[in-house]
Amino acid sequence: MKDPAHRVEPKTPEELAAVVARCDATERKILILGGNTLTGMGLPPERLDVTLLTTALRGVVANERADLTLAVLAGTPLADLASLLAGQGRFIPFDAPRPQYATVGGTLAAGWLGPRRHLHGRPRDCLLGTTIALADGTLARAGGMVVKNVAGYDMSRLYTGSFGTLGVIVQANFKTLAAPPQTRLFLARLPERTRSRVCAQLAALAIQPAAAFWVEGFRNAIDGEDGVEGRILALLEGSDALLERATRDLRSAIGRAGVPETQVLDVGAREAFERVVDAYVATVGQRSVTYRFYPFAPEAERRARAVRALAQRFELKADTILDVMNGDVVLRVSDANAAALGAKIEIFDDALHEIEPRAQVVASQNAKRASLRVWGEPPEAIEQMRALKRRFDPNRTFNPGRFVGGI
Questions:
Q1: DSSP-derived 3-state class of residue 236
Q2: How many helical (H) and strand (E) elements, i.e. helices and strands, does the chain have?
Q3: Is 401 left (phi over 0), alpha (psi -120 to 50) or beta?
Q4: Which residue among 25, 198, 266, 394 has its CA within the 20 to 30 Å range from the CA of 316?
Q5: What is the pTM assigned to this prediction?
Q6: Res. 1 pLDDT band, cuts 50 70 90
Q7: Could you give the domains of the chain?
Q8: Helix/strand/coil for 22
Q9: DSSP codes of every residue in 26-89
Q10: 2 has pLDDT over 70
């Protein structure tokens, strides 16, 4: 392990734990890497001796179909897991970008929040247990394979969203959900002065869409064409009868908001939805930086407009996704070339965080990315988070400096 760029790809949890133990004992610093789909998040490691790939840890460990639970190794691609579960009429709501590459462990470690969570919950809500490689090489197990209330603190939730700073997830156990039998996607161009009304109407529907987005820009990534105020995409899921009723309600709601025409997709609806999620981290080479923040849903449309206006003051192109149901805002700012963006982005970053202190960078290849406030303002619990890092990883072996507050 003399090469600073040394890469190891263990094939079993035990082999991975042995690598971790050797690194910890010799004070070598590890960068944990899964499918490489969310590497636009987080700070660069303060030091890197070994890149630990989890991608060889893939496959199903247990599939208890009668109990509706399963256990998978952490390097399993999300698309493989989704394909397996689809054959059983089940699913887990990961909804993460580029699922053909994204891994189970990496998605959990990043704490990724998908756009269907208002309806189906988050991946961590389906998590029953985990196996973690700790810094000393111990394979620690939390939870199990049984759907039950947890007595005491659920350690699996601690590891989820810790960005690989406390240990390496090597296995995850889940309860699975019944897959919706049908999906339907709606596309609509928005005429002038309809955006706010459409967002309000969608959020108030009696049968909630599984996902609803206001999009402006992302022309090569997301289906549909912009009207004067962008476009709307809405996903419905459920039985034939539920979809027919929800379709009537949604058409009426969009019509009341002043939108004259709606396109309906039954074939390809799921793929169109996934292209929206992929766009959350889509870059235009080194010419863009993408932020994501989470305002209170009723305020999200106004705040999305505010950050777009800020980008325009800096003469930056602004591509925007608003998750109408949850309130998430994705803002991708770009310029004509990497140098032009680099000349503005640090000042823009300061201005953005004045109005959205918790805005996080989720994707960028620009050289100035490392100097931005990629995690936004640290949370109130930052000292408790630092204490956990000291407790679980006293030698700072795992992903040193990559997480919020330089953890």
A1: strand
A2: 11, 18
A3: left
A4: 198
A5: 0.94
A6: very low
A7: 1-179+378-407 (3.30.465.10), 182-279 (3.30.70.2190), 285-371 (3.30.70.600)
A8: helix
A9: TT--EEEESSSSSTTSSPPPS--SEEEE-TT--SEEEEETTTTEEEEETT-BHHHHHHHHHTTT
A10: no
